[in-house]
From TrEMBL:
<dbReference type="GO" id="GO:0032259">
    <property type="term" value="P:methylation"/>
</dbReference>
<dbReference type="InterPro" id="IPR029063">
    <property type="entry name" value="SAM-dependent_MTases_sf"/>
</dbReference>
<keyword id="KW-0489">Methyltransferase</keyword>
<dbReference type="InterPro" id="IPR041698">
    <property type="entry name" value="Methyltransf_25"/>
</dbReference>
<feature type="domain" description="Methyltransferase">
    <location>
        <begin position="51"/>
        <end position="144"/>
    </location>
</feature>
<dbReference type="Pfam" id="PF13649">
    <property type="entry name" value="Methyltransf_25"/>
</dbReference>
<dbReference type="GO" id="GO:0008168">
    <property type="term" value="F:methyltransferase activity"/>
</dbReference>
<protein>
    <submittedName>
        <fullName>Class I SAM-dependent methyltransferase</fullName>
    </submittedName>
</protein>
<keyword id="KW-0949">S-adenosyl-L-methionine</keyword>
<keyword id="KW-0808">Transferase</keyword>
Length: 197
């Protein structure tokens, strides 16, 4: 007999804020991370401010805050943000966690020195991806790096590759690096995109 979490996984990934709220009410999510990826750790060598898009329970934002960065993190699940805030308070960390839609972040002003996303962008449809790119461009300082991890064949159904990412992020960003990954044992990539002036 399948476990509850396996049955949930078989129904497909959550897509709405309410779906994610239900998932984050569980003790563990099937996409949750225990370790901070080395790509995120490398960001901690920088200084200043960082923006995380689709932060979930905020593990990576809290890691960067512990390294001395000023961090703002956004997720559209109030349950996830509630857990993220509680964990930050428990650790004595100053992280600005915000319930919001990554395609429309009117409540935020930049510029941020860097930004990152581990698994949010690939859940968006084409229209939402355009809104996301516009907001990252608005909020990231010229020359700033946006680090993004995406599945090659994501839940959105839009296959992602270096060429697709270059096209989607358009003239506002230069693709600095693309590295294949087997994170979560699936074909995926890390991308480093630099915001143009």
């Amino acid at each position: 007999m399948l476990s509850k979490s396996a049955r949930f996984e078989m129904k497909g990934p959550p897509t709405t804020s309410e779906d994610f709220d239900r998932a984050y009410r569980k003790p563990v999510t099937f996409w949750g991370d225990i370790r901070t990826p080395p790509e995120i750790k490398a960001m901690a060598r920088g200084q200043g401010s960082a923006l995380e898009l689709g932060c979930g329970v905020g593990r990576f934002s809290r890691y960067l805050a512990r390294q001395g960065l000023r961090v703002t993190a956004v997720d559209f699940s109030p349950v996830a943000i509630g857990k993220a805030r509680a964990s930050a308070i428990q650790e004595g960390l100053q992280v600005h966690f915000l319930v919001g839609n990554v395609t429309q972040l009117d409540a935020l002003d930049g510029p941020f020195n860097m930004s990152f996303d581990v698994g949010c962008f690939h859940c968006l449809d084409a229209s939402a991806q355009r809104g996301y790119v516009s907001e990252v461009f608005r909020l990231l300082e010229p020359g700033g790096i946006h680090l993004i991890w995406v599945l090659d064949e994501p839940p959105s159904g839009i296959a992602l590759s270096p060429r697709v990412l270059e096209t989607t992020f358009g003239s506002g960003f230069a693709l600095q690096d693309a590295r294949p990954s087997r994170r979560r044992l699936v074909r995926s990539h890390w991308y480093w995109l630099q915001r143009r002036a």
